[in-house]
Specification:
Layout lengths: L43 H4 L14 H9 L3 E4 L11 E8 L11 H16 L3 E7 L6 H14 L3 E7 L6 H11 L5 E5 L3 H11 L6 E2 L5 H15 L6 E5 L5 H13 L11 E2 L6 H11 L3 E5 L3 H13 L5 E4 L26 H4 L34
Parallel strand pairs: 2-3, 2-4, 4-5, 5-6, 7-8, 7-9, 9-10
Antiparallel strand pairs: 1-3
Amino acid sequence: MEKLSKRSKSSGSSDGKGKGKGKGNDGGGGGGGGNRDDDDVLEDDDLVNDDEVTSEPGCRSAVANAILDIVPEVITVNPPACCNYEGPIGVYVTHALPSNDTTSGLEPFWDAIYTQIATTSEQSDACFVMTGYEPSARSPSDILTDVTVLASSLQDVVAMMVSDPTSEQQLINEIRFITKDPALPSIGVFNAGYNNIVTESLVSGELLIPYVGVTNDADFGVMAAKFTKDALDGKEIKPLCFNGRTDLEFIGERCVAYYSELGEDSVRPIIGVSCAEDSPVEELFNILVEEEANAVYSTNNCCTAVAAAVTMARSMGQSIVTVGCQEADTTGGQIDFVTAQPVQIQGHTPASWVNFPVLQAQSGQRGRQFFPSLDSIVHTDIFTIPIK
């Protein structure tokens, strides 16, 4: 895919552009959503202009431009074929950070998912937009909330998936508002966010909002610990967890659970050793040697660097088993759930995320009979096989 360069104004025909409906008030209660003010409605002219969309390299879809115009911190990416696409659009609202080293411009975890979604969507003649964000003074939750509300108000957007990486309640309230309005897109939550969904459901008395993912992020660490025990088969375990997103508390829960399951609660930092995609391999290698680690669990962004460090340590005679990274497994992306696949199999793999935008492939359908639906609240266990 071409990396998409940022453009400051949208360009697209005036047809098919819905009116924005503003943010929910901060004081939204557990039921959520019913607190939007009519004064917050964004007119069409605030979102798009009447210039014709072109499909030059680096172009953006009208939906992407509409989001960029209103939420300046956002990153948007869509396949080039979607730049002048006229029809129903799917939107992934994520907490992806930017990267200069990936084709999408999103950090490696989300770049891998974006690539799979783009492949599947192309086969289904469907289009989508994925968003991330540039770090700013505003919280990720505030940015995600703004993007979610805006995207849901655009007429061509018929299906959405939203990441919920914080404990803030406003975002989940807005998602509830969207689920209750049949005129708004089908919507589901993925990645972190299950606890917020449960809390909102208890407070509002409503059914759970559709969700894809493990119900507790610690489950990742628990499963990684199980793989580690199996791989070492009774040998003494000296584990080390690498964490590529120490800024997100829920990612740290994976390392905490990993150590806890292995009886190593005293390891520090308990949330994992901070790393990044550009971490010096020698630096990670030195940590492995100093800690005499014989089991490594890595999660998010630094998997390639950690793998190189492990390879270096092994070449020096150190015996290490590895588990993770969960982002390395994007299998199942070619399954098209729109072609009458049973909802019971949804969520087994990242295919639940990958195939979400193909809902638009059925012209005239809003996707409510497919995913997301309450039938699709299932666990997503995403791991690679341990490498001895």
